[in-house]
Amino acid sequence: MTYLLFVLGLVALFFGGEYLVRGATAIAKHFRLSPMVIGLTIVGFGTSAPEMLVSVQAALAGQPAIAIGNVLGSNIANILLILGLSALIAPLIIPVRKLWRDLGFMLLASAVIWVMLLDGNVTRLDGALLMAGLLIFLIVAFLTGKAEDDDAASGDMPQWKAWAMTLGGLVVLVIGARLLVDSSTEIARALGISEAVIGLTIVAVGTSLPELATSVIAAIRKQTEIAVGNIVGSNIFNIFGILGTTALIAPIPSEARFAAIDMPWVAGSAIGLTVLAFVLGGLPRIAGVILLVTYAGYVALIGS
Question: Which residues form the Sodium/calcium exchanger membrane region domain (predicted)?
Answer without folding.
Answer: 3-142, 162-301
